[in-house]
Design a protein that fits this description.
- By secondary structure, this protein is mainly α.
Amino acid sequence: PYTTLFRSRQFLNRPVDKYSVNGWQLILEAENSCLVIFIFVVIIGAMTLSQRNNLIKISLFFAVCLGIFAITAGVVLLTGNQTNLEIYKGISQTEVGQSFLNSLFTKSTTLVVIQNILCPVYGFFILLSIYFLFEKTYVIEISFFIFFVLFLSLECIKLIVPLFNLWNFAPRFVLMISQVLYFSRFTALVLLLVAGIFIVTPFTRRIIPVFFAVCFLALAVTALTPFDTSTITSHFILNDGLQKLTVGAFIFFAAISVLTYFVAGKTLAATEYTTAAYGMLMLLAGYFLILKAASLVFFAVANILFVCGYILYIRSIHRYNLWQ
């Protein structure tokens, strides 16, 4: 990992500072943080219905904790001194006299903070709805979807960066947070893909190897991904050195995830799964915009797509299993 990070810094033509030279220590810190999530994922083993419900309850607890942190941090940032928010490059607030149309596409730190507050709020209500809708029904894809929702809630940890002004005082923590979030995003997308594959497989509860493989792959990819520690994005994390590749990977996994639901709909002759595929498409489009959007228009589109996509997806899955 040290050699990879050192070479990636040379590739980016950036000066190698003390944090890059000691990059192996930072990667170890990120991996230690990721291991907590990794162990939490692996120990569930071959989940029974009772264990799945307990998993939802544990996830709800984490979502509540993350929500409390996000709301508290958001209130402090939005009502207190704005200096910590203004230092981030790529962000500009609406100027006086600016036209209304232009203001709709102007990046705003306020919207970024609000979006990060909404992530654990979405996580809480989605997990709560899943618990009541599927409390007595074991659905394999829902077991994977729970982790997607949990990783979505984790996005709010980015608020630590402006809250404590870490970019000025401790860039290594920004790197650690960025790596943890890249791990969670990669794992979430691959688990959605696996969920679609498991719909039509008979061995629906032997999932230990699947979780182990996905988490191990995510850890390896995150550890080997170079990050540009000289700049920070408008979303309070570092840019990776392979942006086109990571965006392409996101689109690839999202497309295959949606395709698996279409295939499941044809295989099972169930229109509900075809409808769920459209819901998954809207949900993932909204998820991508949630991670990237910073203007009012994209903020609204992202949240509308995400909420509508989830409702369409969960209603379709619930309707199919209800009749089954």
